[in-house]
Amino acid sequence: MRKNLILAQLTNAKTNWLVLDDMIELAENVYQLKKVPEYIDVGYVNQVLLMNGSIAWFYDDVLESVLALPYDVLNGFDIYGRPLEIMARAKNGRYYRKLKRGEFVIMYDNARKISILPKIIQRANRIALSIRTQDINIAQQRTPRMWRTSKDKEETVKGILNQVEGMVENVVAYDNIDLDDLSCVSEPAPYIVDKLDLHLEKEWASFYRMIGISSVVQEKKERLITDEVNASQGGTVASRYNRFEPRQRAIDEINKKWNLEIEIEYYDGVPSNNEEKEVDNNVSTNISDDVAN
Question: Is residue 148's pLDDT more than 50?
């Protein structure tokens, strides 16, 4: 029994980790940075923004390139909570750079200037719980049989059941067992996987809305018109703008400060058929216009 408990706990942890990993991967890569200096690792920039909520851009005279690295705040903040002095640090633990205000630009992941990772973890826990509940419910559909008998006949009954499970056509029983004394209790669990599927769709849709990804699963089912689909994307637009605007503001300052031409855009993906393409293009156009304005 203890072994089964440990295996179940390991499966729970693996499921939770897989869901969280998928969510982090999506949240990190919804924005594309273009025309970035070659020395900068864009994937690392996205990772730091998600995990820490911000990243520092500055120019390194030795490397002769603009860098983007995590940082620690030194000497406090100004009246708006902006760092007065920072210590930029590299992942290898060997590069440190002390920078004063005016020598760096802080890019934030969102308007609140905090990491959204705790929100993602909470949603990952909820989705992983639903998935594991589905696994257990499906396993319970095998309808386990519970046999009631006396203690002295336990091994005899087990032997008979083993033969049944082994698909033996002719089962041999002993004289001391009375088949009429055996009773089987069967209580299959109600099938709820289909209900959990709907719950999971809503949970994923909530996550997509939080990071600004358009989700029209419900709209497709109900065959809503394009205007209704657009109207339902209000939360998505707000969330997208919440993460887009701080990035765009930082890029404008970076380009002006170091004479660069970095661009940012939201990645909407590629539709799988013409019908989806028409709806997706209309939604994307409206969202892009809203963000631009």
Answer: yes
